[in-house]
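re the bet — no i am not wrong, look at it urself. input seq straight from the record:
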Amino acid sequence: MPFWTRFWQLVARRSVRQAWGLACDGSDWALVGLSKYKVAGVRVLAVEKLTSTDPDRGGSGFDVGLSQLAVRSRQRVSVGLTEDEVIAGVLELPAQLPRDDWAAEVQLEASQLLGLTPEEVNFDFQPDPLSFGLFTRVYWVGCDQARIRAIRDGVRNAGWRLDSVEPALHAAHRAASHLKGGLDSLLTQSPQDWQFDLGPNLGHGQPVFGLKEGADWGLHQALKSTAGARLVASGLALKAWL
C-alpha cells in the first residue's frame, strides 16, 4: 500500500479544525500546528522545536519530545521523509498496460534500486497528465518500509496518531503553492505569522511527483533556509485540507 496515502481514509474530505506536521530539521525536528479560519484560510497555531533523541535516526528520533507537548490526547500528525530517505524515478510504461499493473512495476523498480525485496518497500506513484502516445510516463517515489515502521511506532509511543508520511520536497511544494505572499513571506514574516490559502494554488505548477531537488530554484533555496523545515512541516499539516 502506498505509504504516504493516508492510513485512515474514512472520509475523503473530513472536517478538520487543526492539523500538525513534523519535519526533520538537521539533527532536530520542527513541529508546526495549523488551524482553520474563515472559509478557505489556514494560519499557524504553534511552532515547536523538538530535540532529537536519536541523531542517527535508527528509531524515530522524535517520540520523547513529541510526547511532552501539551496537546489534545491522540492528536494526528503527518511526518516528512528527508531526501536521503527517499528514492524517486520515472517509468515509461506501455500505454496498453492496465493501470492495475502499474503498482507491481513501480514496486519492482523501487526494490531493485533500494536493494530490498519488493515486500520491504513502500512506494507511491503518479502518472504524468501530459503523457500521450505509445507510452505512459509514471513518476514514482519509494523508501525502506522499516523507516515507515519506525516513524509509525515513534508517533504511537508519543501518544499521537500518524496521519500520513510523504517526502519533504512534496510537502514543501504544497506549502509554497498555498502560502500567502509566496516564498517571499519566508523573508518578511516569522513562521508564526504565516497564512495559507486553500483556494487554487499560487504557482509551482509542476506535477509534484516530477519534482527533483533543485529543479525549482526558489523552492530549493527555501528548503536550505532556516525556515525550510517549518515550511515542510506546514505543507505536511496542510494535507489535512487539500
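see?? Residues 86-143 form a domain with the Dna Ligase; domain 1 fold (CATH 3.30.1490.300). told u. also Residues 102-114 form the longest helix (13 residues). so pay up
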